[in-house]
Design a protein that fits this description.
By secondary structure, this protein is mainly alpha-helical. It has one domain. The protein is built from eight helices and no strands. The longest helix has 48 residues.
Length: 241
């Protein structure tokens, strides 16, 4: 063997290979993925903030559904037997209100599904983390807060279930009434629809109460999940004083 030939020890060869790998673009990418992988999971308060935003969107959609139902009710009132001044225009108003209410309610249902998924992940992760807290005092306080938030969220889901039990059949009845009137918008047809119109008006009135409760519960969830915000200097000074 030529004594001038340098033989790199195996350990040094491995070290050199690793250094060479991480010096390449691919190596740097892999290293970054390893080092930053844990940073991809949102913090608990970030999950909560996302849920808070979704709850506020639900509240807005509920308000839109209620307003649109009110517009549909006005159109129905105009079609009541003996008071129809312009049946075609009133039917158009009723139909437009119904379509807007149906679209808004579909949005409420879709966003409620999204909120359920968001808060379940948030609460499950939070509950797991409570176990690892340093002291029993911390665990007890955190568990109480967890229970408080869980109660608010459960209240919203109960309100949604109640609203669904009223809204879904009401929207179906209103849509059937729309079809009835669209096919027979004569004096006799309006007279035949008098009782269904009266029943639909009563159902619409019932929805107003459950929608108001649902909106209040959605706002409660939004407030319960919203991270604290920094106070302005004036507000902070007022608190100190």
């Amino acid at each position: 063997m030529d004594m001038k030939t340098s033989i790199r020890p195996p350990a040094l060869r491995r070290s050199f290979s690793q250094q060479t790998l991480f010096a390449t673009p691919l190596g740097l990418t892999l290293l970054a993925a390893v080092l930053l992988g844990g940073c991809q999971t949102p913090a608990g308060f970030e999950r909560a903030e996302s849920g808070s935003s979704t709850a506020r969107e639900i509240s807005t959609a509920v308000a839109e559904a209620r307003e649109s139902l009110g517009e549909a009710a006005v159109g129905l009132e105009g079609l009541s037997s003996g008071s129809a001044q312009n049946p075609q225009e009133q039917l158009t108003d009723f139909t437009a209100g119904l379509e807007s209410a149906t679209e808004a309610w579909s949005e409420v249902a879709a966003k409620t599904d999204a909120l359920r998924s968001e808060v379940n992940t948030y609460l499950n992760n939070w509950e797991d983390d409570i176990v690892s807290l340093h002291s029993e005092e911390m665990r007890s306080s955190a568990r109480q807060r967890w229970n408080d938030v869980r109660e608010v969220i459960d209240g919203f889901h109960d309100a949604f279930a109640e609203a669904s039990s009223v809204m879904n059949p009401t929207l179906e009845r209103l849509d059937s009434l729309r079809q009835m009137l669209e096919n027979d918008l004569t004096d006799a047809g309006i007279q035949a629809a008098a009782t269904p119109i009266e029943q639909a008006q009563a159902e619409v009135e019932e929805t107003f109460g459950v929608l108001e409760r649902l909106r209040a519960e959605a706002n409660g969830v939004a407030n319960a999940l919203a991270p604290a915000v920094a106070m302005s200097e004036g507000a902070a000074g007022a608190v100190r004083s």
